[in-house]
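INTERNAL TRANSFER SHEET
From: sequence group
To: structure group
Subject: Omega-amidase nit3

Please process the attached sequence and return the structure record in the designated field. Keep the field labels unchanged so the import script can parse them.
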Amino acid sequence: MSALKLALVQLSVGAQKAANLARARTKVLEAAKAGANIVVLPECFNSPYGTQYFGQYAEEIDSAKPSVSTQALSEMARESKVYLVGGSIPELEPSTGDLFNTCTVWSPEGQMVAKHRKVHLFDIDFPGKIVFKESDVLKPGNALTEFATPWGKFGVAICYDMRFPEVAMVAARRGCVGMIYPGAFNQTTGPLHWELLLRARAVDNQIFTAACSPALDTGATYHAWGHSTIVDPYARVVGTTAAAEDIVYGTLDLGLVDEVRKSVPVNSQRRFDVYPDVSRS
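Return from structure group:
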């Protein structure tokens, strides 16, 4: 299979978990009806984004004992018959009481095929603009994540993970054709770096990249940037939007991965005698 249709659901997220799950289902089904093969939800799609909310909205993630949100995601994937990258939800680890920011991925049969705990926590301080410290509440994950589809493998990471090029480098060298990032940049970091980072990860690794944000809610305590975006291996933006609720579609021609790698063969030109291969560390 040489092409697939990707959909990024830039969801409007509110304070009511049940309403968020119902709205996500409606949008996932809409995307599937439009022909999407892989559908992506945003970071913290079932809850407002903020350290004050993570504990309140957290759920255990156990494939043997589905929670409210994981059961909903499984049913969405099965009903729509798509691969569903389930944004992220606050996860409670019952054995320790620790909280994580966690993405789950679901097959068209409704089976959980991957789980990624955000590796790099969002701790920033822009004087006079925004201070945010996920580490006040969350613990970081300790593993990189990928999942297989009939079109190829995709890496998955969350938001701030995008700033660390090693994550995408490792995925690409393990054979992934794309990186998918549920994310929620804000009105300070978004205009500066959102598109830049997606294009940088794409051109560095000659893969597709995509990031899915919540829609902007000016009444919320955290103002998401929106602008969910898909980028091709030439670092060209092939789909994007503004800040309102929307679905961004893009057809991923996987032949472009081979095309760009033959045109600019950096894969065979790397000098691992001069610098290390991070994928082997």
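Handover comment: The radius of gyration is 18 Å. The mean pLDDT is 97.
Transfer complete.
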